[in-house]
Amino acid sequence: MPSPKDTKGPIVKTGPTAGQNRTRNKDGAWRAKRSDAGKPRPKQEKSN
Asked: 3-class SS at 18?
């Protein structure tokens, strides 16, 4: 895994973009993880 010292920013630890550099928001702040990250998905009724 790359070091934040080398990539000039925090590294994403988990999720679909794990290992990449964190992106920034429009105001320049580091983007936070989604509030629903890590939560179990709601059960969906199967309809066919």
From this structure: coil
Quick: pLDDT tens for 14-46: 877 777 787 888 997 778 777 787 788 888 787
Predicted pLDDT of residue 43: 83
Q: Token pair 């179990």 is at which residue? A: 40
Q: Which class for 9: exposed (0-12), middle (13-18), buried (19 or more C-beta within 10 A)? A: middle
Q: Could you tell me how far CA 37 lies from the centroid of its own chain?
A: 8
Check the CA dihedral 20-25-28-31 and report its sign: negative
**12 touches 20 (CB < 8 A):** yes
